[in-house]
Amino acid sequence: MKSRFESCHKRHYDLVLRDKQNKEQRGRLIFESWVLGFTLDGTRQVDFVASVEDIQVATSGGEDAKQWKIGQRFSSSIDAGSSDPDPKVNAPSKTERDELLGVWDSTPTWTLAYTSPDKGPLYSQGNAQKVMSVHDMTITATSPTVDPYVEVGSYQATVRFDYAGPVAGKYKGAVFTKARVELVMSRTDPEVNESSLHIYDALKRPERTFPSSASKSVPGETEPLHRMVDTKKSEDQRANSIKECKKVWGDYSGTSLQCDEYPFASTYEGSLAGDGRFSVRLIEGSDNEAGGRMLNATYTLNRIIDGDPFYVKIVS
Questions:
Q1: What does pTM read for this prediction?
Q2: Does residue 136 fall inside a structural domain?
Q3: Based on the domain organization, do 165 and 44 belong to the same domain?
Q4: Cis peptide bond N-terminal to 117, omega within 30
Q5: What is the domain range of residue 271?
Q6: Pairing of the two strands 69-78 and 96-100
Q7: Is residue 275 part of a domain?
Q8: Which segments within the chain are labelled E, that is strand?
Q9: pLDDT of 260-302, one tens digit each?
Q10: Which of 125, 148, 176 is the last residue of a domain?
């Protein structure tokens, strides 16, 4: 998965084909199978561009490779348990190509588009119209005289369609859910060097952070954070973090300092998670605000909605 909106799959096949009794070798078939996937931010659609390329053959026993076929067959399913009510996905009219080798040579590429219908904006009612779908491709190699080769699930992609509204950036769209999302910040970036150092200490040197605990571990690097879009709960976490800052540094009103918190107040792992795995620190207000803008950009550019996981990476 290149991103939440792009995937690239290439598979090399080197098959030995045998007769129907699976005894005598009838030939060798080599080819490349490709699938490029594109989800659309702004439309509840996923496109696949599939192809069979670089075909090579060698035959024996009088076998005629002109009768050999390669097939790519797509199917989709819905995980209703992880979807909002009434989930639907519309498949394209053509989901399979089973072609002679010569046809693939002349026309190697084909496209498919899956869409999910929506009922208009219902996000204000708490319905993001999430549809969790799985898209699989089966590869086959057949002929009238050989034992067929069938590989189910040679390619698989998990796609979420949603209509989550403004919290997602564009009001509706689709993403590859298994793509890893990282908020990357640098300790040498003058705009966020204090925020970055705070997060770095929380992840790498938690004993230096407050509330202090010799055994504290803070999530975000190997264990993901999860976005929380409930503004009331986020405000409660900020208020709690400010209270923790005042316990350590006292009243800092009238200064340019702000209370920075990690994990962020907009995550389920924030200071009210109840496990003590968080850190607060006074930093320059402009730095804190710049870090917040970077976080919000990560949310919207990657279509991170409520409950979606993401990671944090601090570089030098």
A1: 0.93
A2: yes
A3: yes
A4: no
A5: 182-315
A6: antiparallel
A7: yes
A8: 6-18, 25-39, 45-59, 69-78, 96-100, 109-115, 131-142, 149-162, 173-176, 182-186, 225-226, 257-262, 279-284, 309-315
A9: 999 999 999 999 999 999 999 999 999 999 999 999 999 999 9
A10: 176
